[in-house]
Write a structure and sequence with these properties.
Structural class: alpha+beta
CATH superfamily of the largest domain: Pseudouridine synthase
Number of strands: 17
Low-confidence stretches: 1-8, 247-335
Strand content: 15-25%
CATH architecture of the largest domain: 2-Layer Sandwich
Largest sheet: 9 strands, mixed
Helix content: 10-25%
CATH class of the largest domain: Alpha Beta
Number of domains: 2
Length: 335
């Protein structure tokens, strides 16, 4: 079955972007597919970094990617623990099979298999890097419990930066919520960052839940279910990422961490406009979710009777009973 992408000019673009725009997977995963020889351009295996135009015949695992208009999809999922944030359907408990959306989508970023909470899924490859790049300073908020009591010294060290993966993490907001519980707001996205930070201080994470990404929050989405983002949420997200970079410079910290390179100075830098919507300690309240359904397909599952606000992007399908977004049908599962 052919995938669809947004109409583009005839100017050459990178092959990984073409595949990402098709909603097939993220650019990074597209590069892996190219390296594995699963991508063909005009019947030949391309190099990573190759450029193509809509005139070229691009196939992934034999599926032709055709130029055809497609509406952007943005979903908010309350991921339960045990689900892997991967587009590899051959991997057990992968997030794509779990959501079971009728069109190709992929997650923006990751949540550890043992973690739960908010994650965005989309078919819009352009917006992924703008949200993820550490240099763009888009906030992500988490609630964490650890295996033993914490104190002010723990809060001070966590917020001041912890040495992990050969670098010092950026200063961040940390607030103690209970004897073993704290809230943390990050603009970085290093591999298992919070778990590594707590381990470096002699603690072990028991539960970890992401409650917010920029202005977007769980909004009472039941664990294991998802909803479409509202028009208001999408408009605000597009505003926040309008000045965000998509280039590699935004992920310099992550690259240094992966390579083990020396850390740069933690000297504070001016905050970008993209972080203005949610200040540390004062999370941005996401607009109330829900609204009329306009896209998607029919679901054999019963709808929730929950009230909804106007402006939903579209209806979900293929999911269980219940929907946090109102009249749009839920597409998540509960496990």
């Amino acid at each position: 079955m052919a995938a669809r992408i947004r109409p583009q000019s005839m100017e050459p673009i990178r092959l990984n972007k073409f595949i990402s725009d098709a909603g097939y997977c993220s650019r990074r995963e597209a590069d892996k597919l190219i390296e594995q020889g699963r991508v063909m351009v005009n019947g030949k295996r391309p190099d990573v970094g190759a450029k193509v135009t809509p005139k070229d015949k691009i196939r992934v695992d034999g599926n032709l990617l055709q130029v055809d208009a497609v509406e952007p999809v943005y979903l908010l999922l309350n991921k339960p623990a045990g689900i892997e944030t991967t587009t590899d359907r051959s991997q057990r408990d992968n997030i794509i099979s779990f959501v079971n959306y009728p069109e190709r989508i992929f997650p923006i970023g990751r949540l550890d298999k043992d973690s739960e909470g908010l994650i965005i899924l989309t078919n819009n490859g352009d917006i992924v890097n703008k949200i993820l790049r550490a240099g763009n300073k888009h906030e992500k908020e988490y609630i964490v419990t650890v295996d033993k009591p914490i104190n002010q010294d723990f809060v001070t060290k966590m917020s001041g930066g912890v040495s992990i993966l050969g670098v010092n993490t950026k200063k961040c907001f940390v607030e103690q919520l209970g004897p073993n519980k704290f809230r943390i707001i990050l603009t970085q996205g290093m591999n298992r960052q919070i778990r590594r930070m707590t381990e470096a201080l002699g603690y072990e994470v028991q539960t970890l839940q992401r409650t917010r990404i920029m202005h977007l929050s769980l909004n009472k989405i039941p664990l294991g279910q998802w909803r479409n983002m509202t028009d208001t949420e999408i408009a605000e997200m597009e505003r926040l990422v309008a000045s965000s970079t998509k280039t590699e410079e935004g992920s310099a910290t992550k690259k240094r961490a992966e390579s083990g390179a020396p850390a740069r100075s933690n000297k504070p830098k001016p905050r970008s406009n993209s972080s203005a919507a949610a200040r540390p300690g004062r999370p941005g309240g996401a607009p109330k979710a829900g609204g009329k359904s306009a896209a998607g397909g029919k679901s054999n599952k019963p709808k929730s009777g929950a009230p909804s606000a106007r402006g939903s992007r579209g209806a979900s399908k293929g999911g269980p009973k219940g929907n946090a977004g109102g009249k749009g049908r839920s597409g998540g599962k509960r496990r």
